[in-house]
Every structure is written in C-alpha cells, then in structure tokens.
Amino acid sequence: MSDTPRLPVLVTGGAGYIGSHTAVALYEAGFLPVLLDNLHNSSLQAVEGVKTLCEADVPFAQVDVCDREALSSVFEQHSSEDAPFAGILHFAAHKAVGESVAHPAMYASNNVGGLGTLLEVAESHGVRNVVFSSSCTVYGEPETVPVNEDAPFQHAESPYGWTKQASERVLADHAATHPAHRVALLRYFNPVGAHPSAAIGELPLGVPNNLVPFLTQAAAGIRGALTVFGGDYPTADGTCIRDYLHVMDLAEAHVSALQWCLAQDSEAHVVRAFNLGTGQGASVLEVIEAFERATGETVPHTMGDRRAGDVMAIWADPSRAEKELGWSAKRSLETSMADAWRWQQALKTR
Ligand code: NAD
Ligand code: WQD
Fold it and tell me: Ligand 2 center to residue 53 CA distance, Å?
C-alpha cells in the first residue's frame, strides 16, 4: 500500500446491509469510509465486521441524518476545507414497503427530509459528489423488459417508492442550481447474498419480507415453509421474475460511481441515473433451485396467492453502467446463494 493519504468518504447508513459491504469495497479501493448511522435498522456488529475486514479502525458516528447539528459535527471532525469528503454515499433511509404504507409521513420525513438536511450540510462544507441509493421500484410495472434508465417512472405503488422518486428529483434540482455538482442515481434491482467471509451480511429484524432472507431462514429451520407468492403469472414457470445481484457486485458499483463523479472535469453539473443489476431475470422457483444446487440443502416451500403490489417481471438493462462506469456484475446467482447461506449459518453461532 502506498503512503498516499486515503480520501475520506461519508457513508450514511454505513452500518446497514449495503452500506457495510460498500464500506469494505471503498477501503479496498484506497478510500477511507466514514460510517454514519443511527442504528435504527442495524447494529454495531456490522461496524465491527467492517473494521475486521478492513483491518483498520474505520470511523463510525452514531448520528441521525435528520439531526443537522450532529451531522455538521461529523463533517467538521472528519473533513476539512483542505480535505473535504471526496463524496457522500447516501444509503440512510427506511426501506420497508409495507411499513411505508402504514407510516407514510415517517418515510417522507426520514427519507426525503433526511436527504434535504444532508444536502444543506454538505453544501456548507463544499462537498459536491453524491452517490444515491435509488431503486428499480421507481419504474413500477415496466412496459418492456429489460428496463433501461429512460423508462418513464410509473405512479409510485408505495410511499417508499415515492420517496425514491422524490429524492431523485430533489438531487437533480439541487445539482442544477450548483455548478460542478456530480450526482449518480443508482437504481438497484434485488441485492442478495453477503460478504464471502460471512463477517457481514443482511440482518433483517423479525420475519423477513424479502425472498432470500426468508428462504435461508426456512432452509435453516428457523421459519416454516417459504410461501411462493403466486404460481399463476404468465411467466415460463408461473412465478415472478426479478434481477438478483450479489451485494458485493453492488458494493463495487458504488466505488465505480464515486470514481465516475471524481473523473468529471466539467464545471457544469452532471446528474446521471444507472441501473445496477445483472441483466438476467430469475423466477422465484429458479432462485430456490439455485440455492439448492449451490448448498445441497432443501428449501421447504409451498405455492401461495399472489402478494398485493408485486410486479410480475422486471430485470435491468445494465448496459449504461457497463459503458459509462466500467462496471458489470460478476458473481453468479449460485455464488449469491452460497454466500447468503454461509452468512445464515454464521448468524446461528453468534
Ligand atoms: P438497511 O436498512 O440495512 O440500511 C439502511 C441504514 O440506514 C440502516 O443501518 C439504518 O439504521 C440507517 N438509517 C435509516 N435512517 C437513518 C437516519 N435518519 N439517519 C442515519 N441512519 C439511518 O438497508 P439497505 O438494504 O442497506 O438499503 C440501503 C439503501 O438502499 C436504502 O436507501 C434503501 O432504500 C436502498 N435500496 C435497498 C434495496 C434492497 O433491496 N435492500 C433495494 C433498492 C434500494
Ligand atoms: C422478490 C420475489 C416476491 C418473499 C422489494 C422492494 C423493492 C426493493 C427490493 C428497495 C417477488 C417473491 C418474496 C416470499 C416470495 N427494495 N417472494 N415469497 O418485491 O422484488 O422488491 O425489495 O428498494 O422496492 O419492493 O423483493 O425480495 O420482497 O421479492 O415468493 O416470502 O420473491 O413475490 O416475486 P421485491 P422481494
């Protein structure tokens, strides 16, 4: 390793699932991730995991992005006029679709309000590069698949989806009023898996809503059988199709997006959306089969009714990210499943 000082990068939501994996990828790429999280949906265990994997005392601040004063003090402590944060990777948000339907105002204030506060504080500290966690949910049920970044937004199915659409708009409008601001809007498809070391992974609280954490818990005997939500869709095997990408591929995409921000030499502002997916759709039954192939375990499952609000089939056209960020997903669905299972087994021993 050279003696060049590491550029500090603020990682909000850095104790969360995707933020923690990205922190490791940032460190590996030579940056210094500064983790910020209010631990609403995460724990210090993830921060410890990041430190272990980086073999470094990665800074962590337990701060809420809506708390302007506390947020400002993180900027003051970890960045300066001479060495401002090279960028902000903004993961901090609530993310449960069902909860957002029950508590729309909480989602608006945390996800959109938090972003507004963050941008104001960043502005007063001269930080211009933002990489934002958006979602394929902005597309709703797409007219054609694979979906590319020019597809129109559909009416948001949930308050959560609306917060992603609104946040993209806030970021674009903010950048448009400031020269040399660079914003990468990263529209994730379905992140799955864990770091191969099993030192960090996803920590869903309570009964998981998402497919892969439920599947691994069902295989581990922690839950009953997995219910496949709908077997009567007009797809090849009757089940829904998604684009599942390994969380470490996603983490590496953030490093590429930050480097893309840093490489822009224009004094004009630049705002660009990127789909992050594999470009391959997999049905629910194909995910179960990939898991069973990769692990030799059996997933107890039954066919159930469709889940309200589910899109039938969506997968990414990730060609823009490949062309402009030089990024593409490398890991297979089997690798994702093997890593998710290793993490599930590690959780049992903690
Ligand atoms: P996560 O819940 O594991 O991580 C989010 C982190 O943000 C948590 O640690 C939480 O404690 C923290 N947080 C929430 N509000 C905060 C606040 N006001 N101040 C400080 N910290 C706060 O979720 P994740 O899966 O890692 O998702 C990260 C981002 O990616 C979110 O913005 C989410 O909406 C987005 N996203 C996730 C998925 C997915 O399937 N996991 C898909 C698309 C987009
Ligand atoms: C995947 C597939 C289910 C659970 C959600 C959010 C989206 C984004 C990613 C943040 C679907 C099926 C699931 C189960 C099942 N998050 N399924 N049995 O719905 O694609 O997207 O997470 O932005 O906004 O909506 O992901 O993992 O919930 O479901 O059959 O017990 O698995 O029907 O086809 P989804 P998911």
Answer: 29
